[in-house]
Amino acid sequence: MMDQPPRIGRLESGARDAITDVAGVTVGHATLADGAVQTGVTVIHPHARDPFLHKAPAAAAVINGFGKSLGLLQLEELGQLETPIALTNTFSVPAVAQAQIARCIAANPEVGRAWSTVNPLVLECNDGYLNDIQRMAVTAAHYDAACAGADAEVAQGAVGAGRGMSSFQLKGGIGTASRRAALTSGAQYTVGALVLANYGVQANLLWDGAPLGRRLAAAQQAQIEAEKGSIIMVLATDAPLDARQLRRLALRAAAGLARTGSVYGHGSGDIALAFSSAYTLPQQPGAPMPAVALVHEALLDPLFQAGADSVEQAIVHALWHAEAVTGRDGHRREALRPLLQAMNK
User: For residue 130, what is the domain's CATH number?
Assistant: First the structure.
């Protein structure tokens, strides 16, 4: 009987095997689980300071753009985070963005007046199979609760934004992992990943390289469905990288995603984001810009390996930790672990 998920790759993990192994990063959830409402919010804080005043360098990579996220345009232009990263369902993006703006104004009353406006960042997946998404049940209070509850210990599975998500026709959700990267220069850095997994055709599922999905589909007589889900992949690192290098790191999330059996289908919104906690960029033009010794381009490969491995491991963790959920109109997604246990008896 399998009592642990497979461990991906050869690199060491951080102490928690979570995105929060990158110092300063915290994660919070607000979960709504009431009948037809199965949804929530997950928030990732890049550091403990005000993200508007102390912006984290960041970049995004769109693997397949079937998505409704908000804030990516300015992120691409400026290469900076101005708010925590928020994850939620598709129809709750506006409410969470408004909550981000309100929270920023409360902390910085001159935002939008004497100071520039803030760029909220909300990434989404469609949880409408399990969740009555039309109710738009997520409110500013849920975003605030997720922010207030952010911690280094990260709950995984059917929690926060992952509550109503499906993967490979099973229960998906939130997963996280980390890997340590040793550069040939002698420097060591951590790369952590957090995913919101809501994608996948069951017959295509690869489990540490093994064609598990074929066995599951045969056992359940599952019909092959078109790929129409999504995944958000967030990478954090303590390596000093600029926005251009972070985009290169974000692109390596696609390698980890592909190893699980995704082909980035037409209807799938596959978005990766990477940020560095090694330094921040000041909001005020009178403050000095940091003088940062960046990692040399020729030394990035171990970070790329760590990014791909941590994303694949985070997806495995999302499936492993998810519980079965019944939601809208009696729709149900089974959890993977009981199915594995039954198959391995």
Answer: 3.60.70.12
